[in-house]
Amino acid sequence: MFETVDEVIMNKDFISLIEGKYDDELFKKAQAIREENYKNNVYLRGIIDMSNYCMCSCKFCGNSCMSTTERYRLTVNQIIESIKFAQNDGIDLIHLAAGLDYKINVEYLEPIIEYCNANGINLEMAIGIKNIEVYKRIMDMGAKRFILKFETSNKDVFEDVKDCHCSFDDYIAFIKLLKKNGAHIGSGNIIGLPGTTIRDIANDIKLINDLDLNMISTSIFIPNKESVFANEKTGDRELALRYISIMTLLQRDRRISIPTNSSFGLNNKIKALKLGANVLSVNYTNTDYEKKYSIYDGAARYRADLDKTKNYIKQAGMDCISWREFKKNEPK
Asked: Considering the entire predicted model, what is its pTM?
């Protein structure tokens, strides 16, 4: 066993960190680096779930084409109205999410992007694997941030669980292709995804580090009643906190977006902020549809409105800033 966390990181012995053998030092160092890189700053983004139609049959997801969830697709006007609500709350980064829905295309997105360009709103999108020309056209219009989570670096599990008409190798190649074309990319894994092991989490860390991303995330597996994995065990939140801490250490010379999402639960979201996370999300999806976007599920999930979100930023001893303030120090 190595004597210090720095030695462990240098030798890429991530398994021992994930297993908790260095927790005290790991968490202490992560908090110190977080304070050095970001001070106490946390930025907010508004999330709008555009559509829960999806061509994929991912086993963990309640939006899978195999599920019986009631489908919806927001109109462009509904999305712009939701953006206006976020704008009035001082939100200047909007995350647009959808399943792999081929009607979420350039023509659909163009007026949304035009509105955001005209009103100083930044966009990021999670819209799945589409033709590279679609992404290029979106980037030409000014939206360059995209989220493409690989969920697991275990190829066999990926191709069994993330059934989205794309092999693992092709998925990673597409992420690299988008980066080569100037996109800012976020990606990450699911802690506790059925079929994965601690060794897989260690390999997730190596893959994340190799991809040189603009945003790093992790989610905790929560069984969704609409999914194939409805009866599987919830992922370990302590592992997710270690994961965020390791990422903070690996990215110590950069300032990078590390969100904490609703799968963490309230108390662990506050812990995650102290260990390196610097992004929190507020959902601005029309209330008629908010609960129909169903990737994760479960009572442990914690989604809050703006006032509650700002309150637990204070509970964590943090300060709320805008995306515009944060991005001044983000890598180009």
From this structure: 0.93
